[in-house]
C-alpha cells in the first residue's frame, strides 16, 4: 500500500545546497514584484541612510516586501515579519533574511512621502512595456475605515458635560486630601493617583475642545463667505430691477461649536463618513483615477470630506502633474456625486471632455429611448448643456457606461481580494501615503496579469 503514495521524508538531506531561485515558478507574482523594484530609481531612499551603526536592510528588498505584502493581503509589520519565516514567496523576496517588525514599520512610516514618486515610476514602466497610454479616465471614491472607532469620538456637548463632572470630582478629591492631612488614618483612597488620572483626562478633553473650536471657526468662515455672496447677489439684483427679490433672506451662520460637533480621540484627523450599506463609520474618503483600457490607477488622493463634489479639482491637478510621455487625458467619466457647473467648466478648461452624470438614471431603459437622439444643441449652449446633450446620445451613453467596469473593479479587488478595508496608519498624511501603497500594490497585480 505504501508504494501508492508519494514518500514523505522530512529528514532527507539536500544533496546540493538549495537555491532560492528554485523555490518559485517563473511567472510568480513575487518574482514580478522583485523585477519591477529592481528597475526603479531608489536613490531618494538610499541617500537617506547615513551609513553609521549596523548595516540596514536594502530599501529595494523592504519595498518588495511591502508591495508584495499589500498585494496579497498581508499588511501589518508583525504579519510581514512572520511571513518571512512561513511563506516561500516572502522568503524569496527577503533572500532568506528576516527583517523584524520594527524595521518594517519604521521603513514604511519613514518613506511614505517617497511612494508618490515610485508610483509614477511604475506607471512609466507600464508605458515602456506598451501597456499604458492615457486617454479616458474614470474617477471614483470609496470610504475607507480609519484606524479609529466611531465610539472614540467626543462631541462638544459631551465634552463640556464631562469636563464639568471631572472638575467637580477634582474639588471633592482635594477636600478629601485636606481631611486626610488632618486625620491619622486615610480611607484607603489613593488621592494623588485619582487626581493625576482626572488631570490627564481634562487635558485630553481640553485638546479635543480646542480642535472642535478650530473646525467650527473654519466652518463659520466658509459659511460666512457663502452668506455674504448670497446677500451681495440679492442686493445687486434689487439694484438692477428696483424690486425686492423673492424668497426669504439668507440666514446668517452662527459662530462657535454646535453640540453635535465632535472629534475622534484616536485619530482626530479622521471624520464620520456615511457607508454604502447604511449608517456611519470613522474613516476617510479615498479617491482613485483609473485608466479605462488597463484598469491601472493613475492618480490618487485621500480627503476628510465625505462628499465627492470637491474632489474633481485635486484629481485633475494630480493628473496634470503626470509625465507627458504617459499620454494626455482627453475624457473623464464620473458619477453624479462629482457633478457641478464648476467641475464641468474645469474639465473643459483643461481640454478634457467630461461625462459626469447630472442625476440618477433609471435602469433598463426601453430600446427606443436608449437609441433616441436628443434634439440639436442651441448655438449658445453652455458647458453643462453640452455635456447633458452628449450624455443623451447613444455614443455618450455607451461611453459613460464604461465607468462601472473601470473604477469599481479596482475598489472591489482592493477590499474583497486584497482584504484592505481599513487604514493601519493614523492621520491624513499617513493615510494618504498608505493609500498610495495600496494602489501601487494593485497596479503591480494588474501589470502582472497584463504581462502574462
Can you summarize this structure?
Strand 5 (280-291) and strand 6 form a beta hairpin. With 452 residues, this protein is α/β, with parallel strands linked by helices. Helix content is 48%, strand content 12%.
List the helices and strands and how they pair.
Blueprint: H1 29-38, H2 43-46, H3 59-71, H4 77-86, H5 88-93, H6 101-110, H7 115-128, E1 134-145, E2 153-155, H8 156-182, H9 191-241, E3 262-264, E4 271-274, E5 280-291, E6 297-303, H10 312-320, E7 327-334, H11 341-349, E8 353-356, H12 367-370, H13 383-392, H14 394-401, H15 408-417, H16 428-451
Parallel strand pairs: 1-7, 7-8
Antiparallel strand pairs: 1-5, 2-3, 4-5, 5-6
Molecular structure report:
- The protein has 452 residues and is of the alpha/beta class.
- The protein is 48% helix and 12% strand.
- The chain has helices at 29-38, 43-46, 59-71, 77-86, 88-93, 101-110, 115-128, 156-182, 191-241, 312-320, 341-349, 367-370, 383-392, 394-401, 408-417, 428-451, and strands at 134-145, 153-155, 262-264, 271-274, 280-291, 297-303, 327-334, 353-356.
- Helix 11 links the parallel strand 7 and strand 8 (353-356).
- The model has no long low-confidence stretch (mean pLDDT 88).
